[in-house]
Amino acid sequence: MDLIQLEPIDLIWGLGMIAIAIGLSSWQRLGLELSLAMATGRMVIQLMFVGYVLAFVFALQNAMAVLMVLIAMATIATMTTRNRIGKKIPGLLPLVFGSILFCSSITLIYTNLLIIQPETWYQPQYLIPLAGIVLGNAMNGAALAGERLVSTISSSRVEIETHLSLGATPQEAVAGYRKEAIRAGLIPTLNQMTVAGVVTLPGIITGQMLSGIDPLNAASYQILIMLMIALTNLTITMLITQGLIGQFFNHQSQLRLP
Predict the structure, then answer these.
(1) In whole angstroms, what is the distance from residue 124 CA to residue 146 CA?
(2) Which of 16, 70, 89, 129 sits a CA distance of 20 to 30 A from 232?
(3) Domain boundaries defined on the chain
């Protein structure tokens, strides 16, 4: 079964749904008209640009081109995560970039070389989509865990300093806060794994079925992707929270808030 190609006129008809949404917002005086229009414009421009770039990279079949795309994706994910956690925290940018790069690379190497085993390790058909999914979820998990840990430590100064004065190490003083932050970063992943296939059909399985792939094969790929996301999110939340703790204490184990 061949995929039904969407023509420009089809996308124009698709924009009619946003026109309806803007009309409803105006009718209910929600004030979302400009936001909907701007978000739609950005989305269309970004996706069309990405589509042309990936079409070029897919046709090129070059390892360096694929790596450049992956590094660009990791850099954008790093900047977004850093901005959500807090720009004033010293050393946060290299911490986030190193964590995202390390955790995503481990998961992708394991999956690509041990499970999928494409003809070439840099085959963009597999590596780029999988990297995009892993990086996007790693970004969200790291941001949620980092935000939770920073806000909790900032609002619990008295409790932490009390533990330190009683002889606790910095790691012991914030161990409970770190566990809660890691759990917070994993909640969306666990929820997604719990309802996948029962309440929702995730994007990958939907896209593959639209392209004509056998539903069982699409489900197998979705299971693999969910397992990749779970491993990546757990490891990155562990690294991010561990690294953030080091930024909140000096060499004398004294609490310092940025």
Answers:
(1) 31
(2) 89
(3) 1-60, 62-247
Neighbours of 191 (CB within 10 A): 11
Asked whether the beta carbons of 255 and 160 are under 8 A apart, the reply is yes
Close Cβ partners of 244 (under 8 Å, ≥ 6 residues apart): 85, 89, 92, 95, 146, 149, 150
Rg over alpha carbons for the chain, rounded to the nearest Å, is 22
Q: Tell me what percent of the chain is helix, strand and coil, each rounded to the nearest 5.
A: 80, 0, 20
pLDDT of residue 183: 96
Q: Read off the pLDDT of residues 172-221 as tens digits, 9 standing for 90 and up.
A: 999 999 999 999 999 999 998 888 776 666 777 777 777 777 888 888 88
pLDDT tens-digit series, residues 107-156: 999 999 999 999 898 999 899 999 999 999 999 999 999 999 999 999 99
pTM of the model: 0.86
CA distance 87 to 97: 14
| Contact residues for 46 (Cβ-Cβ < 8 A; gap 6+) | none
DSSP 30: -
- The sign of the torsion formed by the CA atoms of 150, 152, 155, 159 equals negative
